[in-house]
TrEMBL record:
Organism expressing this protein natively: Berkelbacteria bacterium GW2011_GWE1_39_12
Keywords: Membrane, Transmembrane, Transmembrane helix
Domain of life (superkingdom): Bacteria
Protein name: Uncharacterized protein
Transmembrane segments: 5-23
């Protein structure tokens, strides 16, 4: 009787163990199949992304024979067209402002030996330039709201006792000036939010500040131990900027900040080049940058390599030489 019970128990144990082994084998086959499918889907996604052609035109500034040009690069056929040159102009392109997303204008200054003007460029087959202010001397940074109706600019004021930096707002024609903000540090990389409700700028080389244009309340959006350059607002409303290593300015990272969630996301990085005036394509599949190599300090007028890099890829497509990217239009 005892032997019979032992035999039955042993048989049950063997059957249970065999079922467990078979179950594990089957599960492994299912997992392998799922991994194969996922891998296939991911490969298809990468291939689809890499095979997708870039669209739109990149407008940028470059040097040619001692003059500044505004060029357009057509991403679909790799054609470069010069839409403006100051070669034969009395007034030369001076400082760069922003590109207004809704009125589609690029703000800049033009200057001769003793006078500076505020102008806007609209891009078609050629760049149509319009003078907004006959006398516009700026010491720090300037930008327009997305509609191009309000002009914002920062200036430095030095007295016997202190130095202050003021942020002003005026209408397009220079009227209705109001002081928005005052600080002890320069107000740089000025940009205006898509809804026109906030101004963003950098201070102390390492902070991004957001200023509510209705309440005048300011908040620190981001702070780093390194240095921040080329802050701007993207067409989707988020911020993009370059963070360079404090000890090696040519080691840099392009970051994106989602202003709704506060999420900080790394877009791309290079250890040997400064990624200047970065911008994202309208379809959000590529980044445009000017790669610059500085021997010493940052210089926004230095020439570098205008390049496009697909998001998620390390392949760099070099287009030519450039100084500053204005916009990437659909």
């Amino acid at each position: 009787m005892t032997k019979k019970i032992i035999l039955i128990v042993g048989t049950i144990i063997v059957l249970f163990f065999s079922a467990f082994v078979l179950l594990k084998i089957q599960q492994n086959k299912i997992n392998q199949a799922e991994n194969t499918n996922n891998s296939s889907q991911n490969t298809s996604l990468v291939k689809a992304t890499e095979s997708t052609k870039l669209n739109g035109k990149i407008y940028y500034i470059s040097y040619k024979e001692g003059s500044l040009e505004i060029n357009s690069y057509n991403t679909s056929d790799d054609k470069i067209t010069t839409v403006y040159s100051d070669k034969d102009e009395e007034y030369k392109i001076g400082k760069f402002g922003n590109f207004t997303n809704l009125s589609s204008e690029f703000l800049a200054t033009i200057k001769n030996s003793n006078k500076e003007k505020l102008v806007s460029f609209k891009f078609n087959d050629k760049a149509d330039m319009h003078v907004l202010r006959e006398d516009f001397s700026i010491s720090e940074s300037f930008a327009a709201d997305p509609l191009g109706k309000e002009i914002y600019y920062s200036k430095e004021f030095i007295t016997d006792s202190e130095t202050k930096h003021n942020l002003y707002q005026e209408t397009r024609d220079g009227k209705n000036q109001r002081l928005l903000y005052q600080a002890n540090a320069p107000i740089l990389d000025l940009s205006i939010s898509i809804d026109g409700q906030k101004a963003f700028f950098t201070q102390d080389d390492n902070r991004i500040i957001g200023l509510d244009l209705n309440t005048f309340e300011d908040e620190q959006i981001y702070k780093t131990g390194d240095k921040i350059f080329d802050l701007s607002v993207l067409s989707n409303g988020n911020l993009i900027f370059t963070e360079a290593n404090e000890k090696n300015i040519n080691s840099s990272i392009v970051y994106l900040i989602n202003l709704k969630t506060g999420e900080l996301k790394k877009d791309l990085s290079l250890r040997e080049k400064m990624l200047s005036s970065a911008i994202i394509s309208p379809d959000m599949i590529a980044t445009g940058v000017v790669q610059k190599n500085f021997e010493d300090n940052f210089n926004d007028m230095q020439t570098g390599e205008l390049s496009t890099i697909r998001i998620g890829s390390d392949k760099i497509n070099t287009i030519g030489s450039g100084i500053h990217i204005i916009c990437w239009k659909p």
